[in-house]
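Repro case for the chain-ordering regression, as requested:
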Amino acid sequence: MKTIICPCEDLTLEEVEDAIREGYASVEDLKRYTGLATGSCQGRLCLLPCVDVLSRMTGKEPATLGLITFRPPLEPIPLGLLAAGARPPDERKTPEARP
Amino acid sequence: MRNRRDVVVIGAGIVGLMTAHHLVKRGVKDVVVLDRAPSLLLGASGRNGGGIRAQWTSVENIELARRSIEQFKALASETGQHTWFRQGGYLFLARTEEQLAQLRKAAEFQNRHGVRTRMVGPEEARDIVPDVSVTGVLGGTYNPDDGTLFPWPVVHGVADLLKHEGVPIELNTTVTGFRRSNGRIAAVETERGEIQADHIVLAAGAWSRELAARADVEVPTHPERHEILVTEALKPFLKPMVVDLANGLYCSQAMRGELVGGLGYPHHEGPSWASTFDFLQAFAAALTRLFPSLGGVNVLRQWAGSYDMSPDHKPILGRTPTVENLYVACGLAGHGFMIAPMAGQTIAELITSGRTSLDIRKFRLGRFAEGDIEAETMVIG
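-- result from build under test --
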């Protein structure tokens, strides 16, 4: 039987444990080595189980392990919706993005 | 941490790691790589789009890129990690006669130097990328040997190789300065103590200028923030990296299925990692103009990284004129990842034999003071 830890990227618990044994022993390293938390849920499903495994295998307190940097957008947004709201360069909201 | 090494490499990005790798290949094994970050891949090496191309407008850049592509081809078997390297080509699209003429001139130049770039009309562009809208596109160039890879396993793979070869990568190690003696650096000073070294390699990306200044070496680069994003995964439909010269849009489909891309944009002087909603909107508008069928595709994640911009957009590679045992590999202007194998090899060759297999005169730091510069024009993103 396999335990799936990251359904978006098809990662099993065993694969994450292997990665930790190979030395990828932080949440940020695991993300970049296994692809964990890079799928469509952006870590909502997999991160806490991942911290749990990491804590169990390294003996570190979960609270000391940290998570990943959460990136925008908060929810997936379709390109078409974003494009419809695109502003001409001189009306951009961020001052430094104006020409 | 040992306090004496033959070579200290500052920066555990792909350029520093490749330098260490090529030193080991040449028998120099007493090497340490330092980085102030707590993990690998937190700088530009982990933040770029993974494009690899030989479509450049100077012989030096073409040679750096071509020979680097050859090394990337062999890297997965060398490191045992799949690099997702795929030669789907780069398709540049022009929307004005001026851009088209620029591409034609570049293609002729590249052909003379062994790159298989060819001119394509709008219809042929559609043959290469069936979903692209060629409305307003006059033509473009395509080099089938260009490609993409996934930077993460490349960095992890080389780092792993180094660990097995006994080269430590010391993370959480900030370089604070250099102890000088008779025009040389006697030791690298870090927050964790001093390391004496025969040779010092500075490969710190956007932080190189600041570090070089601590050795009284002026490196005329500046950091520039560039933004990038990734979409949800789609079934494979996009073979090449596509570049729209109208706005500097670049976009490719990685082998996991997701689209990765960025945009020419008024870039903020960095180093900074802030993402903006303006970029998200401007990129979406540019991409859906080129691919109207992608309107329903979700953006998953956006982030930013720092280019280390040199005044002529060419690398600065070699020994510094004023400190004889300090070597720099910086100013890589957004194409550092793709030339890292040859940048690393070149520095390793200089350290071990003083000679390089590539003519690197055009990359010397002294060119700025001497006024001997010709700008590379095909910088995108």
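Ordering looks correct now. Chain B touches chain A through 40 residues (CB under 8 Å).
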